[in-house]
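Obj.: predict assembly geometry.
Materials: sequence records (below).
Method: joint structure prediction, all chains together.
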Amino acid sequence: MGRSSAPEILPGTLDLLILRTLVSGSMHGYGIAQRLRQVSDDVLQVGESSLYPALQRLLLNGWVKAAWGVSENNRRARYYTLSASGRKQLASEREEFARVIGAIEKVLNTA
Amino acid sequence: MMTGFHTALLRARRRLVFLWRRTELDRELAEEMEFHRVLKQQAVGELSSIQMGNMTLAAEECRDMWSFLQLETLWKDVRYAARMLRRTPGFTAIAVLSLAVGIGGNAAMFTLVNTLLVRPLPYRAPDRLVRITGVFPRAAVLFFQQQERSIEIAAVSPGSEYNLTGEGQPIRIVGSAASANAFAVMGASVARGRTFEPGEDAPGRDASVILSNSLWRTKFGGDSAVIGRVIALNGVNRQIVGIMPSAFSYPSAQGAGLDPLAPRSVQLSRILGRRIRPPAGQAPRGNRARRSPTRDPIRG
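Observations (raw structure tokens):
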């Protein structure tokens, strides 16, 4: 049981969030988590125990690439970059997400 | 997450790579997580392992993702099943037997249905062949042929026994009489020699015979020189004019085949005949070899 310190993220959306975050350039895992937190005003706090499996999953699907580089504090860090197929996946997942959210809102507003 | 077939293939390939570099990837993951931990520690200050989340589990999850876990589990299940079956031989025997009987029964039934109902008969234009069974006088065949212009009518008698003499030891064989046009109507031909010529089924001109392939091989040793030779059937001399191909098994005529092994194939074509009826026509008249010379069952 990976106890996440972050509030529940909608299942399946973590991949989408990571892909979106990587659009602005390559980042290491910690950077991604920080970025998500900042952009979401501390609402989305991704736990390490779900972040790294998610990154591995994206690697496995070929949607991100990983390369070792040197971090700001001069340490070896693994940087993740969005791949071409990852970009495509992001577009389709965004579309799907918007569709689902739209549908949920519609239900909430009418039912 | 929707992933296409292509992605699945890529994933499988990356998994294979992982098998090669398992320890390396494990180490990289650990290093990456350690890097994360250090940065977080610097940001937050003191950090207990609980705040960091369960990293062992996360690493475990990553490893599972990379390996062929489902395949490995499946293989384990198969081996477990095999062990259980070995431990209970009685149950296994009954299960295997039930399966065998079930599959065997189905296969046999399919073979039968396929041959009888599904596959077309091995004749030219089988959809236009109609078989009429019954007992008709031989003269009726000639009469039908003359009256009916839109149908080609051929006749084949059911097999009857003949004494074959004049070839060493006399033997008893099964053969049939056929009208001269039976081969044309069925679209059958001989492997060697010739089929009956028109008019060869007329009285006095019917002193010819065509051998079945198996009789030719067993009795005459597969010798091509046998064509033209005269043999005696029930004391009547007939000249061998042709040999049928081995695939041909229609109840053979005075011509078609004289074959001690024929009854089985005769039986089959009779079953077939109830549904689709091959040639109608006239059996050679004046065939003294028949037991009832005036009444001759005809298939049309």
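Conclusions so far: Residues 37 and 53 of chain B are 10 Å apart (CA to CA).
To do: check interface contacts against the pulldown list.
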